[in-house]
Specification:
Elements (H helix, E strand, L loop, with lengths): L23 E5 L6 H8 L7 E5 L11 H20 L7 E9 L5 E6 L2 H13 L9 E6 L3 H5 L3 H6 L4 E2 L5 H4 L5 E9 L7 H21 L7
Parallel strand pairs: 1-2, 1-3, 3-7, 4-5, 5-6
Antiparallel strand pairs: 4-7
Helix pairs in contact: 1-7, 3-7
Amino acid sequence: MPGLFNPANLFGQPARLARARPPIVLVIGAHREELSFGEAVAEHLDRQRIDLLRIPVGLSGERPGPDGLERYRQRHAELYRQILEHVQPGQRVLIDLHTGFDERLCWADVLCAEPALLRCIEHKAADDCTPAVLGDMRPVRLVAAEGDAASRPAEAQRADAWPWVRPELPEPVWNGKSPLYVGVEVYLAAASQGTATEVRLAAAVIEAVADCALSVQPAARPR
C-alpha cells in the first residue's frame, strides 16, 4: 500500500531540518473529518513539550458497508503503522485525538492499555478544582480480548473498575512499550470544528494526559 502522507512534511518542516523533538506527539487528522478540530485544539497547547503530527489527508471516520469493511480495516491499520514509524527517537508518548458526538454535554474518554496512566487520569479528574473541565474526563482501558478484562484478580477489578474496549489498531501501536499510546475522544454537540468551550476542554484533557503520561513513562526506554 502506498504511503498515506508525505513523511517529510508530517511535522511541518523539511526532513533536512530535523531536530530533537518534544517528548509527546499529538496526532490529528487520522480521520479527515476531525482535522479542523485538531488544528483548533493544537493552538492551545504547549508546543515545547507536545509535537504535532498532522495527517493532511486521513481516512474517513465513517465505516463503509460490509463489502468494504475489511479493506477499510486494512487501510486503517496501515495508516497507524505508518504513524508509529514516524515517531522520533526519544518521543515517549503518542496521543491520538478523535471526536465523537453527544448533544447533551461535552466530555472526553482517555483510552490506554497502561493502568498507571488511567489511575493518574482518574485522580486528576477527581481532584481538579474546576470539575466542569477535567471532571468530564473518563479513563477507559484498552484490552486485546474480553478475557483480558475478566481475568484480572477481583481486588484489581475493584480498584480499576474502568470501562474497556478492544481497539481496531495494530497491537504494536496501542500496546507497545514505547511510545505509550493514549487515545483521546472528545464528544462534541455537533459534527464541526467545535465550539470554543469544546476546544478548551480538549486542550485541557490533552495537557492532563501529557502530565500523566510523562509521570508513568520512563525517559529512556529502547524502542
